[in-house]
Amino acid sequence: MSPGLGPETLAARALVTDIVVAYAMALDACDWAGFRALFEDEIEIDYSSLGSIQTTLPADAWVERCKVLGGFDATLHKVSNFAVVMERDAARVTSYVDAAHFIRHEDRELAGFACGTYVHELRRHVEGWKVSRCAFTVAGYATGRAAFDQAFAAARAVHARQEGRP
After folding, report:
1. Phi, psi angle pair for 27, to nearest 5°
2. Is residue 52 classed as helix, strand or coil in its secondary structure?
3. Cβ within 8 Å of residue 117, ≥6 positions away
4. Which of 7, 53, 77, 93 is deepest in the core (most CB within 10 A)?
5. Which bin fits 112, alpha (ψ -120 to 50), beta or left (φ > 0)?
6. For 19, which DSSP code?
7. Reported pTM
8. 108-125 β-sheet, strand order
9. pLDDT tens, residue by residue, 49-103
């Protein structure tokens, strides 16, 4: 046992770390109900380092936005190096993420890789811990930013067709 950490604190740390893992795995499985279950009803999102959004929005809207990942043939969000700060009924989990995105497009295999840091802030509720804030800060793109953007453009097009949009 870590010095100064009792069993209840260690159990809470394990729970919030498991939620970050569940976040990544739900994205990869396109388990949108499971993904939604991780959040409070309104959440703060900061993906501005990707050129994406930084806002507070309903969790349902965030889930809808993430469904673009269903346009990929596969994604793998690998999280590691967890640093957890607990304060009563609040937790902040910082972790590394390696996000790999794969799609076959026009007879080519496209791959977009982004590596960086997640910060998930959670609050304890009667029914358990819920994510109130999620931020992703890019450290770099293993295949370059252009390859990442190209893979996402192809996935957006596939997702639009899946949704019945032109």
Report:
1. -60, -50
2. coil
3. 94, 95, 96, 97, 136, 137, 139
4. 93
5. beta
6. H
7. 0.92
8. 54-58, 39-46, 128-140, 108-125, 90-105, 74-87
9. 999 999 999 999 999 999 999 999 999 999 999 999 999 899 999 999 999 999 9
Tell me the two tokens of residue 150. Answer: 């190209």
Q: How many CA atoms lie within 13 A of 131 on its CB side?
A: 32
Alpha-carbon torsion, ordered 37, 8, 122, 85, to 10 deg: -150
Residue 1: its pLDDT value, please? 42
At residue 61, what is the residue type? A
Cβ contact 115:136 at 8 Å? no
